[in-house]
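# nightly structure sweep
# worker-07 picked up a monomer target from the shared queue
# config: single-sequence mode, recycle default, output format = structure tokens
# input follows
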Amino acid sequence: MGKDKLKSKNIMTRDDLVAYLETVLAGLRQGTLILDNEERPLILRPSDSIEAELEIKQKSDKEKLELKLSWVPNKMQPLTPVATQQQAPVLPSSPLGDEAKKK
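# output follows
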């Protein structure tokens, strides 16, 4: 398995963010998150054990919530072609706008 990375940062409406997070939650429930990348899709297979880090900051002029999830991929799920995984939620390549950076 290679190393793929995508970062996005931009401003979006609260409703757009809620819709995106609901798509992420649906993927977590199903056990497959698919990120539709320009080059090829990134497929994440969260395991039943997920490490969650939450950091909340509040200043007089800004509030911030950071959520970081990490896991060892679920090896029990077969690697099937993306075309057969249409039922899994597909996340847009840049849900947060045009400032996506891929490394």
